[in-house]
Amino acid sequence: MDGLVLRKLGRRFGAVDAVLDFDLHIKPGEFVSLLGPSGCGKTTTLRMIAGFIDPTSGSIELDGKILSAPSGSVPPEKRGMSMIFQSYAIWPNMTVSQNVAFGLNLRKLPSDEVKKRVGAVLETVRMSHLADRYPAELSGGQQQRVALARAVVIRPAVLLLDEPLSNLDANLREEMRFEIKRMHDEFKITSVYVTHDQGEAMVTSDRIAVMNNGRLEQIDSPYALYSRPKTRFVASFIGRTNFLSGNCGNHMIDFAGFSVPLAMIGEEVSGGGPITVSIRPQAMKLSATEAPREKAINLQGSVRQSSFLGETWDYVFQSTDSGLQFRVAAPPADVFEVGAPAWLQIDPAQIVPIAD
Amino acid sequence: MTSVSHPAASTWSDDQPVKVRVPWHQRLQPANLLWLFLAGILVVLIVAPMWTLVVSSFTDAKTGGWTLHNYVEAYGKERHITALTNTLKMGAVVVVLKLAFGVPLAWACTRTDMPGRNFVRYSVFGAFIMPPYLAGVGWILLAGPNTGWINRVWHSLSGSTEPLVNIFSFGGLVLVTAIGGFFLVFVLVSSAFEMINSEMEDAANILGAGPFKTAMKVTFPLVMPAIIGAALLSFLGAIALYGVPALISIPARYPVVVIQLTEFFSFPLRIQVAAAYSIPLLLITAAMLGLQKLILRRKGYVSVSGKGGERRIVKLGRWRWVLFGYCFCVVALSVLMPMFVLLLAAFSDSWTAGFSFSNLTLSNFHYVLFEHSSSQKALVGSIGLGIVAATVAITLALFIAYIVQRKLIPFSGLLAFLAVSPYVVPGIVLAIGFYAAYALPPIALYGTYTIMALAFVTRFLPIAFTTSSAGVRSIHPEMEEAVRILGGGRVTALRHVVGPLLKRTLAGGWLLIFVPAAQELSTAIFLVGPTTRVVSVVLLDLSEEGELEKLAALGSLLLIIIVAVVAIGMRYLGRDFMLRRS
């Protein structure tokens, strides 16, 4: 199978499974993020891919060749990968161009070829004018660019990124996200990106693998992950959401105070009994007057809390009938006082049943 | 429970049989062989000599069979037992003296506004550079019973014919031993004083404690572990020292262990008995260091671990000159006076004639450089051995420290233990071990530079290891992982990244080894051959021949070369490289 394949991958430290039964197939040229809270096993997974940690179960293969297995692994230096580290790990004893040339020199390329490639990649990351500087003379963002250049210049089989932006300030981080995306689009390197920042993962990735407690929760495109979360963890970790408990039966889901026909919601549901759904704050609309819309669920109630976040309002709406509370996002022009009566419309197509 | 129908994260992996084996040639890292090689070196340097030492102490010299006779012979004579108890007594008194010298100086230089702090610091550093046996010679020139300068001044002043001071006495022995080693107390205790954050003392002040109470209740308890550690090391240094007893304890008729050991090594050669007799020295050292570990492990003694914050300087007022007076006395006794008389003697026709222009000459230097049979070669040999020992020890230690810090192999802790274990072996005992293991046929390295270089490397491996280990710990592992993921092995990472990053640390460690290695006496004494004498041994020969002026000239030359090397090092490393070590 082409690409990078993790098969039932597991790593145990003492009595703790840091990673367990992790299956993942990354196609050639794909950019996949491992996203999860700290301690979820994403960095362990990445370091297993790099070869710094051996798995205790399962295997890793690249283009059909086994790289890692509990019985032994190909060492990192023989994998033809490259990596961008959290600390950048730019060698302070070498200049920018020496840092970038290091991997090429290890590959015993002729020196004019090395020079040409280093020049070209420094051009790409806009660092040509600083080629002879030492790392101590560079800013954090510039060091990050050097790390990026050093990693891509060898045209690695797989590029691994270990929270590369976590040491940068917010503005720079935003800029570097697009930089990384741009580099990927330009070189089409199979990439695995570890982060706990969903924004980073959303911008850069073709697909995001959400991890929790050493296991894969869901892998999907950023849009699918946001609009169709499959588990409670994914729904709450990616963006904000409302969880509602209901009961499923007779082609309807019954919630406190209202019911939705199964046919109207976007997902197929089989069987019956208790069910949990996720409704994003953006899947609802608040209005001051009763203006029932076709195919929408209309609830009457009032605004209980409000906070202004700049790009949106964050309201808490409480239904009069059931007392249920909803977080609702509204554009800045939709101003409601706390305590004001309001009507809520929910788009049933955006109600997503989830597994607990 | 309702089941939401979505496909499991992926199911395709179940379809395919999993073959999990990476071919061995892909798994092979050439570096792994290096680790094996290093373990082999440590066996040669440490395990084999020490094992041979212990085994030969139980071996019958004639039959080669097992025996306890060596122990009977070693401890059967009252004289031999006296030497043991004398050694312990001397060690105890030396510790008291070294602390009395080192602790006040360390406090004065780090925590007070005493004038001349840098002068005191440099002078103490001079004590590090001057080998103890040269200080001993200096004091023989100063306080020899008949011709010592102090006594001659006393005779002419008082008309008495009795000496005022006599260096050939128990007092002389402990004084000279103490001045030759108190710099270690100074270094350890000053760095402890520098680690204390003044906020700890401020906290006591704000609660109502005065300066004296604060010092007694807060400051000194915090440096106590350093003082205890320094005291133990002082004791071990004192009982293992060879040069000073060789000069003083024989004329003083005060037999000590090291001198007794040389007796076993003179004709008739009794290595097995010497081995048996050196075992207590080894056991005492091991026990002392074990004791230190035990004391330091106790809770409450761990507070001096933080990074030093801002330190408050104690304003001494009028007392600053009193303290300076005391410090001056100590550095005068330990460095200035012996160094001065040594230089003067080196340039004198006859040191007993006192100072006059007619007495000045360069002939002593000419003699040791061009006429004497072995001193010129010895200078080259000593400096060369110093360079080789420092370089090999640092290189070896860097690799070992790397393996240990990065936990590359199972039981890497054992490598660390081996690398620091020569610490508990006094130089003279190490020499006996090397003699027993490698001097005689079939290996027959006796009298070669090789056996001395090996022994010196072993002797200084602990310093090298401690320095390298701290250095490696300060390097982020990702620095090396970046090398490896780009296709370089661990050895490449060591050569291109770890090594260059540790250049300064390693150079500092190199100097800390070079200085004592170029002067080393106790390890050399049993290993030198007729054609491979080192300066320290030639100096002792000259002292036995009574050629003190020529001895002084040769000693000065050695000092000048070492000072030059250290000066170059300090230019490159900054002057405080020695104090930064803890």
Mean pLDDT across all amino acids of chain B: 81
Q: Classify the secondary structure makeup of chain B into a structural class.
A: mainly alpha
- State the share of residues found in helices of chain A, binned by percent: 10-25%
Shape of chain B: globular
List segments of chain B where confidence is low: pLDDT < 50 over at least 5 consecutive residues. Answer: 1-18, 299-308
Helix content of chain B: 55-70%
> Which sheet architecture does the biggest sheet of chain A show?
6 strands, mixed
Characterize the quaternary organization of these chains. Answer: heterodimer
The strand order across the widest sheet of chain A is 7-8-9-3-10-11
Proportion of beta-strand residues of chain A = 35-45%
Number of strands of chain A: 22
Shape of chain A: elongated
Put simply, the count of helices of chain A is: 8
How many beta-strand runs of chain B?
Answer: 1
Describe this structure as you would to a colleague.
The complex is a heterodimer of chains A (356) and B (582). Chain A is α+β, with helices and mostly antiparallel strands. Chain A is 24% helix and 36% strand. Chain A is elongated. The N and C termini of chain B lie far apart (65 Å). Chain B is an all-alpha fold and 582 residues long. Chain B contains 25 helices and one strand. The relative contact order of chain B is 0.12. The chains are: A alpha+beta (356), B mainly alpha (582). The interface between A and B is large, with 63 and 36 residues. Strand 15 of chain A pairs antiparallel with strand 1 (3-4) of chain B.
